[in-house]
Design a protein that fits this description.
CATH class: Alpha Beta
Number of domains: 1
Structural class: alpha/beta
Shape: globular
Number of helices: 6
Largest sheet: 7 strands, mixed
Strand order of the largest sheet: 1-7-6-5-2-3-4
CATH superfamily: Pyruvate kinase, C-terminal domain
CATH architecture: 3-Layer(aba) Sandwich
Distance between the termini: 17 Å
Order of helices and strands: EHEHEHEHHHEEE
Oligomer: single chain
């Protein structure tokens, strides 16, 4: 396992290189990457040529009602290069965050998200996007490499046995490939 001194964009290339190497060694064919602008997905295409790439981005309306976060031309470019782009509600917050914001109290899904953040934001993101990709029908069900980050770029890569939201506790984090040590 590789540790980065800090989270952030500067770890993106190394994270993707490590993820691609581990995927090759384990015979994994699918990679899920978190991306908003598309930059991480384009970098993954460059570095991870042998992998089927699924790019997961925020749901429509995340920043502005009824507006997609990823620009349409970026989405089209990625899709034309063979990337499956998934825009979905956050699997580990979604409607529950709305209920919490209105009524307070404890919410189990938010507790799961915060528990994953004990390993860093990128770990929570990598788990979450694997669920979102599974729910979108973008995965085969075999082990994947999932790449997340902390605000910008990628700094965490995990080997995951994916699961749908309805089977969350069947999901397995098989390996931590890399992550920030300080976060």
């Amino acid at each position: 396992m590789t540790y980065f001194d800090a989270p952030g964009l500067e770890n993106t290339e190394k994270t993707l290189q490590l993820a691609a190497e581990r995927a090759k060694l384990l015979g994994i064919a699918e990679m899920v990457v978190a991306t908003t602008s598309g930059r991480t997905a384009f970098k993954a295409l460059e570095i991870c040529k042998a992998l089927k790439i699924v790019a997961v981005t925020y749901h429509c309306g995340f920043d502005e009602a009824f507006k997609p976060v990823m620009p349409g031309d970026v989405r089209k470019d990625l899709e034309s290069m063979g990337v499956r782009v998934v825009s979905a509600t956050h699997a580990l917050s979604g409607v529950e965050r709305s209920v919490f914001n209105k009524y307070s109290g404890s919410c189990p899904v938010l507790l799961i998200a915060d528990t994953l953040r004990l390993f860093g934001q990128g770990t929570k993101v990598a788990v979450e996007i694997s669920i979102m990709a599974a729910d979108a029908g973008a995965l085969s069900g075999k082990d994947i490499v999932s790449v997340g980050g902390s605000a910008h770029g990628a700094d965490t890569a995990l080997v995951i046995k994916p699961a749908h939201q309805s089977g969350l506790f069947d999901l397995r984090i098989r390996e931590i490939i890399c992550k920030p040590r300080n976060f």
